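Explain this fold:

***
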Amino acid sequence: MGYRTRVRRVTNLDNRSQDSAPDLVQLLAGEELLTLADVAERLDLAITRAYDLLNDRKFIAWRSPEGTRLVPASFFNDKGSINKYVSGVITVLSDGGYNDEEILAHLFSADDSLPGRPIDGLQGHLAREVIRRAQAAAF
């Protein structure tokens, strides 16, 4: 009667085992990682506004094994703002069924066809190609 059923989209993620997912600790090992307080300082915002941006999915955070939420510094440009393409890729992959860890793995895993990693492509002229590939991967 008044019940709504939620349709779950089957994606290529459903066929992956947890063992095949790259280890985020290794993928993020060489990255500069920021706490949310660092993010607020970098963006010149109050800490509560940094939490709002996180909740609005303008960027995502990785929860370290110690439990601290960390944000890769490569999500931000040298002008002190969030890279607009990062938010776009997060949205596209989230809509396609990726969770935050899978999004981070996608962005920080090497892709020989790009060349490099998708996160590096978002900083330069490959940004539109990275987003196009994210759309293809997500659906």
